[in-house]
Amino acid sequence: MIRVIAARCLEVLPSLLIVTMMVFLLQKLMPGDVAIALAGEDRNTEVIAHIREKYHLGEPIFTQYWYWLRGVLSGDFGNSVKMGSPVASMVLEKLGVTFQLSTLAMCIAVALGLPLGILSAVRRGSVWDKLGDLFALSALSIPSFWLGILLILIVSIHLGWLPASGYVSFIDDPIESLRTLIMPAFVLGAAIAAMLMRHVRSAMLETLSADYIRTATAKGVPEQRIVLLHALRNSAIPVVAFAGIVFGELLAGAVLTEQVFNIPGMGKLVVDAVFNRDYTVVQGVVLCSALLYFIINLIADILIALIDPRVVL
After folding, report:
1. Regarding predicted confidence, which is higher, 254 or 104?
2. Which residue among 43, 98, 110, 299 sits deepest, i.e. has the most Cβ atoms within 10 Å of its Cβ?
3. Where do the domains of the chain lie?
4. Residues 226 and 213 sit within 8 Å (Cβ to Cβ)
């Protein structure tokens, strides 16, 4: 398995290189001049010239790309053009916030989607199945930003149960940190729970119709044992693969949700960087997101191989 994992790591290198080239070239197509934006309202020509020289903005675009890529390969993502702070430290700081939010959202999604999917499959055509379909349709149809605003209006303003926005570090105050993240995590987790529920239901229905399940039922094996021990385990492969993809996307930054709830994560960081024309930060966030997406999916592939050793990575 180690050899296969190493081969997968080598396979992803061209993809990461293409990602770096695309994000670097595309941000150059954005309107405006970063040197003029950083020079302030006075727009002193000497200041603009100094900024262009400092950040190699007067060099050809591929020369600029090489300067940046060479720094990335040595572990230096550069400094924020706006703040002056190292991009790597900024991304790591925001990554912790996004990781906490994404993990809580996945826990909510699994807690809702997994049992609903199992129940809908086992009780196919019943009222439970209809309720599961209603939940999935509602959760997928409601825009995340609208659901977030609605929760703020009801839960925070009218009921006063949870803070409307902001973030408290888990290290500083675990309880208050959970209170600030539970609503945005639910907003993110609801749609994922709906998709997870449909994946679990589909995989379980296929497994429950297999011959060995009918044989176990004919032998008098309890239904709970058949569902949880046999059917659920053999249905786990597509579910784990889906969870890996979704969790990787969450770590890339939930832009709208973090904006609505003022969560200082990677999504808010990249939005602020785009508005400030802080392209170094944008490049660092996108590259980190692509790398995290690969790592999470590699972990999902390893879990699938552990669940079913017959699966080749």
Report:
1. 104
2. 98
3. 2-73, 87-307
4. yes
Lowest mean pLDDT among 164-168, 211-215, 295-299: 211-215
- Per residue in 249-261, pLDDT tens? 777 657 778 878 8
CA 157 centroid distance within chain:
28
Alpha helices by DSSP H, listed for the chain, are: 2-28, 34-38, 45-54, 61-73, 87-122, 127-141, 144-151, 174-208, 211-218, 223-225, 232-234, 236-251, 255-260, 266-275, 279-307
* CA contacts within 13 A on the Cβ side of 42: 6
Place of tokens 């950083």: 38
- What pTM does this model have? 0.77
User: What is the third-level CATH fold of 87-307?
Assistant: MetI-like fold (1.10.3720)
- In whole angstroms, give the CA distance from residue 204 to residue 231: 6
Nearest to 300 by CA among 309, 286, 313: 313
DSSP state string for 18-33? HHHHHHHHHHHTSSS-
Q: How far is it, in rounded angstroms, from Cα 113 to Cα 75?
A: 39
- Whether the Cβ atoms of residue 204 and residue 117 lie closer than 8 Å to each other: yes
- State yes or no: pLDDT of 58 exceeds 70: no
